[in-house]
Design goal:
Number of helices: 12
Number of strands: 5
Strand order of the largest sheet: 1-2-3-4-5
Largest sheet: 5 strands, mixed
Order of helices and strands: HHHHHHHEEEHEEHHHH
Helix content: 40-55%
Shape: globular
């Protein structure tokens, strides 16, 4: 595609023979978008190198999500990982009152729901007489799926039968605190990747159960991966990673691939799609497919404009700071 050729030419022109390191942007959370747009990790790495201000953009919703995740993690740590033993989660939330006050109301509610869901998962394991090791924000190696940076699971429960050192079952939970519909756990590639990574690390006889907790949307789902299912998923993950690491990975701008991409404002393929949509707008038909395409193009254009405005504001703030320091 023209986008792929442009990317390869730019890399050659600006970096010479040096390969741009895109490993930082090949991660479990971005595999879904990367499967759609193989060039996303390389474009992100290149854009951040050329435009460092991209990393400083103010994204209030994302900031709320980051803070909310931290509050969930700290609350669970207070509940389950203190020297004196387990404590009541309500008491832990009370201790987190100052941090909770910095969250907007919807995020606070989402945090409480995710904490309650985590407590329910632990209680279920105890009720079936598992001995449970509770790991919070646990790093998982990505060596078995080609992801150099690995990934961090929000909650990992290691379940053993009494008196047995071997791990029988691994439970992985991931918190989603935004409004965006993340679908079902069974179809969630990030969670499938976590399941594969957790299986590689612990080799649980009964496999891995994953939970997708969408706290703000009040939607919770789970899926179980037997060892054979994990081995069927592994080639898909490896194919995505290999495509992303190729010399000239294809660019395929869609709202699903571009919504959170750091390269959005500097991606020629995105601009071409938006301009093409504007040119042919008058030619759109009235079929369902035409309406869907128009809606997708409009959503992509809206995100592009939002990101451009955020970048312009960052540049203005930097300019004002420079004047003030002069």
């Amino acid at each position: 595609s023209s986008g792929s050729e442009d990317l390869a030419e730019t890399e050659s022109r600006e970096e010479g023979r040096q390969v741009i390191d895109r490993a930082e942007y090949i991660r479990p959370s971005s595999l879904g978008p990367t499967e759609i747009c193989n060039g996303r990790p390389l474009m992100e790495a290149r854009t951040v190198r050329l435009v460092p201000a991209i990393l400083l953009l103010s994204r209030p919703a994302a900031d709320q999500g980051t803070m909310g995740h931290a509050v969930v993690a700290q609350t669970l740590a207070l509940t389950y990982q203190q020297p004196g033993g387990w404590t009541m989660p309500d008491d832990s939330l009370t201790q987190m009152a100052a941090a909770m006050a910095r969250l907007e109301p919807w995020t606070r509610d989402a945090v409480r729901r995710c904490v309650a869901y985590a407590v329910a998962l632990v209680d279920q394991c105890v009720q079936v007489e598992f001995e449970v090791t509770i790991q919070i924000e646990m790093h998982l190696s990505g060596a078995g799926v080609g992801i150099a940076r690995g990934g961090t699971a929000d909650l990992v429960l290691l379940c053993r039968m009494p008196g047995d050192s071997r791990i029988a079952l691994v439970i992985v939970a991931d918190w989603k605190l935004g409004w965006l519909d993340q679908g079902e756990a069974a179809d969630h590639l990030q969670l499938g990747t976590y399941a594969t990574m957790a299986f590689d690390k612990h080799q649980p006889e009964q496999g891995v159960t994953v939970h997708l907790a969408q706290g703000r949307r009040q939607e919770f789902s789970s899926a179980h991966y037997q060892p054979a299912q994990i081995e069927r998923l592994r080639p898909r993950i490896l194919d995505i990673v290999r495509a992303a690491k190729s010399d000239a990975p294809a660019l395929n701008p869609t709202i699903e691939a571009c919504r959170y991409c750091r390269a959005l404002t500097h991606c020629r393929a995105v601009r071409e799609r938006i301009m093409h949509a504007a040119e042919e707008r008058a030619l759109f038909g009235d079929e369902v497919a035409d309406r869907i395409k128009l809606a997708e193009d409009a959503a992509l254009a809206k995100r592009f404009v939002e990101e451009v405005k955020a970048l312009q504001k960052q540049w203005q703030d930097e300019a004002q700071a420079s004047k003030g320091a002069a």
